[in-house]
């Protein structure tokens, strides 16, 4: 079953009111997220499809949040009227934020999933950490810091 079909089925299922996510579908740890993302290519049930779509949404939300945070700090989206470029850089240095070397246009969710799955396979001993930390570590590993 291809990914588009999976997404369409899950959207239809959610609109029709089928299926619910339970605590067993949580993505608390990197391992939970890794297993949920593995379901994308081979869901065996409606619950698997819902879990896979939730995992895709988790990665997408993380990527959007990461881009927004970096834009706010380094491009001054919110602070541009208050601080000039030099002051923004000094603020970032002062609060010790590093900037991930992600592409200017961002990271597509499919690429983000691929990066995470590769990292999770190589660093399986790290998967007991939170899903957020594991995702961040995978992007640091893939892109490095500026």
Number of helical regions: 6
Overall 3D geometry? elongated
Mean pLDDT: 78
Query: What letter string, H or E per element, gives the SSE order?
Result: HHHHHH
Strand content: under 5%
How does this model look, in words?
The structure is a single chain. With 146 residues, the protein is mainly α. The protein is built from six helices and no strands. The longest helix has 30 residues, at 46-75.
Write a concise keyword list for the protein shown above.
146 residues; mainly alpha
Give a concise summary.
With about 150 residues, the protein is an all-alpha fold.
How would you summarize the topology of this molecule?
Elements: H1 3-16, H2 30-38, H3 46-75, H4 85-94, H5 109-122, H6 131-143
